[in-house]
Amino acid sequence: MSRTDPLRSYKETQIKTATPGKLVVMLYDGAVKHLSLALESLDSRHHSYDRVSEQLVRTQDIITELMVSLDFEHGGEIARGLFNLYMWMNRQLLDGNIRKDTAPLESVRGVLLELRSAWAELAEKAGTQAPARAAGGVNIAG
Predict the structure, then answer these.
(1) pLDDT digits over 86-124, tens only?
(2) Domain boundaries in the chain?
(3) What is the reported pLDDT for 133?
(4) What is the third-level CATH fold of 19-125?
């Protein structure tokens, strides 16, 4: 048994027992974490473009997961607005990755932090909901 097994098990339990709102907050946390790591790598004197790219691709993967979890039927205009915002984020991340420019990356991080804060507040208010168990994604209609 490797040293990472207990940590992996703990994280899996967190995900399986989280409310839908908390799952969204966890996705935002992951996106901010990977984007911050990319920015740190880009800003360091000994930056590795491979590491920057790897972290930005992980951030894009998380944003894509947020996109596919949108419920347009119940989320209506809010879901459409979030979809457009996520598309913009992915374009900014791609641009920042290609040009190795921190400005678009910082813009995305700012928006992610604002959205994370809003979802954390919503998740706290809805904390009495049952844990999410469906494998079909997260309903983030609100």
Answers:
(1) 999 999 999 999 999 999 999 999 999 999 999 999 888
(2) 19-125
(3) 44
(4) Four Helix Bundle (Hemerythrin (Met), subunit A) (1.20.120)
Locate 98 and state its tokens: 């290609």
Q: How far does CA 65 lie from the centroid of its chain? A: 8
pTM metric for this prediction = 0.79
Closest to 140 (Cα-Cα) out of 16, 21, 11? 21
Give me the helices (H) in 1-140, please: 4-17, 20-43, 49-68, 72-99, 102-125
* CB < 8 Å & 24+ apart, contacts of 96-104: 96/56, 97/52, 97/53, 97/56, 97/57, 100/42, 100/49, 100/52, 102/39, 102/42, 102/43
